[in-house]
Amino acid sequence: MKKITVVIAFLVCLISSVFAQESVELKGKVTDENNKSIKNITVTIKGKGETVQTNDSGIYHTVIQEGKQVIKFSAPGYASKTVIIEIVDDTELDIQLEKIQNSKSSRL
C-alpha cells in the first residue's frame, strides 16, 4: 500500500510539472554580417507547428513554452542557423546570418 501511495505521489508531481510550463515571449532581431536588418527571415520553433517571419526591421516575436527549444532561422540567400536554448523566462535572442556567396566561377 505504501508503494502505491509513493507511485501516485510521484505521478501527480510529474503531471503537475508538465502542465506547469508557462508561455513566455521570445523576440529578437535578425541581422546580416554588416549588422543590417534582414526582413522576411523565417523563424521556426521545432515542435510548435508554426513559424513567424521578421518584419521590415528584422524583428520577430512569438510566444513559446519554457524549457529546451530548438529554433531555426532561414531564408533564401542566407545560410540557415539553428539554435538550441533553454528558455526560463521572456527571452531576447538576436541572430546574425551570413549571406551565401554565389558559387559560380567564371571561365575564360
From TrEMBL:
<keyword id="KW-0645">Protease</keyword>
<dbReference type="InterPro" id="IPR008969">
    <property type="entry name" value="CarboxyPept-like_regulatory"/>
</dbReference>
<keyword id="KW-0378">Hydrolase</keyword>
<keyword id="KW-0121">Carboxypeptidase</keyword>
<protein>
    <submittedName>
        <fullName>Carboxypeptidase-like protein</fullName>
    </submittedName>
</protein>
<dbReference type="GO" id="GO:0004180">
    <property type="term" value="F:carboxypeptidase activity"/>
</dbReference>
<feature type="signal peptide">
    <location>
        <begin position="1"/>
        <end position="20"/>
    </location>
</feature>
<dbReference type="Pfam" id="PF13620">
    <property type="entry name" value="CarboxypepD_reg"/>
</dbReference>
<keyword id="KW-0732">Signal</keyword>
